[in-house]
Specification:
300 residues, alpha/beta, Spore Coat Polysaccharide Biosynthesis Protein SpsA, Chain A, nine-stranded mixed beta sheet, two-stranded antiparallel sheet, 12 helices
Length: 300
């Protein structure tokens, strides 16, 4: 692997006109500079695509592709969107040129040294796949980076053996016996009382920010994102595409690592309680003003 290999960042987008420019800015302004941003428009009906086209005029690292409409996106029986983004990520794999691949959701953001730290950890741990942790999205933290010197003695981690064991513990009995049988049973049946114990293991999530792993290109030769009916590690309520992908990688390669470093900002209602003091700015440095931020505010 070269000294600073190209990292392909895949960003599925669906009706994110109010947030996509912030998400894009947090990637283009990373301290790790050798990147490409593959934006996959997942049938947006608002101004999302137009915004991305405008941003791409200012930075040739942005590559925009359109995904075909997915008829399985919404599950009528579960009454929820269960397949959002899974096929868009797979399309991104086909266009990625990097030796390394990661993701950025279009309604979130990353601290500006997320990729730099994630890459360093992947190299130092000789890992094929590294996940980090998250904290609640905070607009005041945009354009900032984590001070690793101050934070280094707080880092906890899980290694390949622990993550593989977790993958087996959270894997349903039926999937252990036969992937074909597991695939053949409709998901809303899998959730039924009594029999759900056959299809779900411990129900624990993959640790940290499962939506933004960094991994070597060889991963996609064996592991892809799967639609809900094919997932071995879905969430009990449906979806769980990221969870399923990460546990696939941990099981298939047995060389995954998790580091409890909060570098990803997730738009959720509640804070990740583990990092309340971290995001109070005790460990954050000012880096730069995000490009496109002022333009983005006009869409808010």
């Amino acid at each position: 692997m070269s000294t600073h290999p190209l990292i392909s960042v895949i960003m599925p987008v669906y009706n994110c006109e109010k947030t996509v420019a912030i998400a894009i800015g947090s990637i283009l302004n990373q301290t790790y500079r050798n990147t490409e941003l593959i934006v996959v428009n997942d049938s947006s009906t608002d101004q999302t695509r137009n915004i991305i086209e405008e941003l791409a005029k200012n930075d040739d690292r942005i590559r925009l592709f359109d995904n075909e409409s997915d008829p399985n996106r919404f599950d009528v029986k579960l009454n929820r969107n269960v397949n959002a983004g899974y096929s868009a990520r797979n399309l991104g794999f086909k266009h990625a040129k990097g030796e390394l691949i990661t993701f950025q959701d279009a309604d979130d953001a990353s601290l500006l040294n997320r990729l730099e730290i994630q890459y360093d950890l992947l190299i130092k741990s000789n890992s094929i796949h590294v996940t980090l942790d998250w904290f609640k999205f905070d607009e005041t933290k945009l354009g900032r980076k984590l001070n690793t010197a101050k934070y280094s003695d707080r880092i906890e981690s899980l290694g390949p053996d622990e993550l593989y064991t977790m993958s087996q513990r959270s894997k349903g009995l039926v999937a252990k016996i036969s992937k074909q049988i597991n695939r053949a049973v409709p998901f809303h049946w899998k959730r039924m009382r009594v029999i759900n114990k056959l299809f779900f293991g411990s129900l624990e999530n993959y640790p940290g920010a499962g939506n933004s792993p960094l991994f070597k290109r060889e991963v996609i030769e064996k592991v892809q994102f799967r639609k809900l009916e094919d997932r071995i590690w879905p969430s009990f309520m449906g979806r769980g595409a990221d969870k399923d992908f990460n546990f696939q990688v941990a099981e298939t390669f047995r060389n995954s690592h998790f580091f409890a470093i909060p570098l990803y900002m997730w738009r959720v209602p509640k804070q990740n309680d583990k990092y309340v003091d971290t995001v109070s700015s005790n460990f954050l440095d000012q880096e730069s003003t995000l490009p496109y931020y002022e333009r983005t505010k006009s869409h808010g």
